[in-house]
Amino acid sequence: MEISDSIKNFTEITSCRTCKATELNEILNLGVHPLANKLLDSRNEDELFIPLILLRCQKCTTIQLSVNVNPKLMFSNYPWVTGTSETARIHCRKLATEIFERVLNKNPRIIEIGSNDGTLLNELVNAGAREAIGIDPAVNLRPSGNPNLTKVIQGFFSKDLADSIKSSVGQVDVIVARNVLSHVPDLNDVMEGISKLIQEDGTIVIEFHEASRILTELHYESIYHEHTFYHSLKSMEFALSLIGFEIFEVLPSPISGGSFVIFASKVNRPKLPSLSAALLKEEASQVYSQRAWEKFALKAIENIETLRNIFDDEREFRWIAFGASARSSTLLNTIGSTTKNLNWIVDNNPLKQGKFSPGIHLEIVSPEKIKMEKSEKIFICAFNFEREIIELLNGDLDWHGEVIFPLPNKVRRFQI
């Protein structure tokens, strides 16, 4: 489908989503891409192709996309399920414990924005939450925990939805937003909604893929239409300041190959050394610098060309890909036509199996197919789950051959 047919489904921004400045510089243009999580039922299905361009605000330095895509196209039926990843499950269990060590009310009511399949909701209840309420627009995802303690409100979180929830549910002690505030077209509206629902002494917990990690480890594959923002601590500090909240602690997270979990409060809480250390490290990464992002773009183009050459030069081998994630969509569609050498793409999420990947239309199959089909090389799209994937290949799947990791930083390849 041509871009002109798609215009009603997306709009180009003319000012920064956070500070409203109009001075926006183009960093990296990846061309036109399909929606990264819009899996197809057949190879002949029509798709939207929308510009995928990364911008930087000159005034507040926030990194963001050039377009807002209609959220209903991306999130109403969502294929990413937290519980299918062992790494994500372990992280949610640990995060629930971390939250309870920091909240002021030890028997809290909690809201999670973007609750997905309820993995974290259930861990929060297990840790002692009086009630855990999820908010998620996806009609296909529901928690399977205790219905008396967990429930999900279907919808896109906003100031208006917050008004409705406040009138029916009241305010809560903790609001969690894991990898959600990078997805919203209007961050200020979401922050106002959070402000309405949180108690005066409440705690906000936000997880996001750190922009400095994207910059320094060349995570260009994390650029896709769902991610309107690529947050730094500085940009998140600014957004929180609009509702009178301040960050008081930062923790590392393994999600997305490197993320931050921040804790913020309106009441005066001591700022812990982790915050100043993270801010110093972030500044040293040059994540606020236009020139650093220009270098990032050049390195990304070089990496893409290297991968194109590998697929072209080694097309006589039998290839498969591992990981039908949104990031794999950006990666494979940016590499382009040479990825047609791939036979299929495996993923352990049952919601994805039997469908076809966006753009390049690879059939998505269960990892069990690796046992049945002889392949010589595996292209690891989900490099951020390297340990988990290698253990699966070496263990249950008993596969041996060459694995190729496109990132972080550079292409790596070795025999297992």
3D structure, described in words:
With about 425 residues, the protein is an alpha/beta fold. It folds into three domains: about 5-70, no CATH class; about 80-270, Vaccinia Virus protein VP39 (Rossmann fold), CATH 3.40.50; about 290-415, NAD(P)-binding Rossmann-like Domain (Rossmann fold, 3-Layer(aba) Sandwich). It has twelve helices and 19 strands. The chain has helices at about 70-75, 85-100, 120-125, 160-170, 185-195, 210-215, 235-240, 275-285, 290-315, 325-335, 370, 385-395, and strands spanning about 10, 25-35, 50-55, 65, 65-70, 110-115, 130-135, 150-155, 170-180, 200-210, 230, 245-255, 260-265, 320, 340-345, 365, 375-380, 400-405, 410-415. Strand 18 (about 400-405) and strand 19 (about 410-415) form a beta hairpin. The two termini are about 40 Å apart. About 45% of the residues are buried.
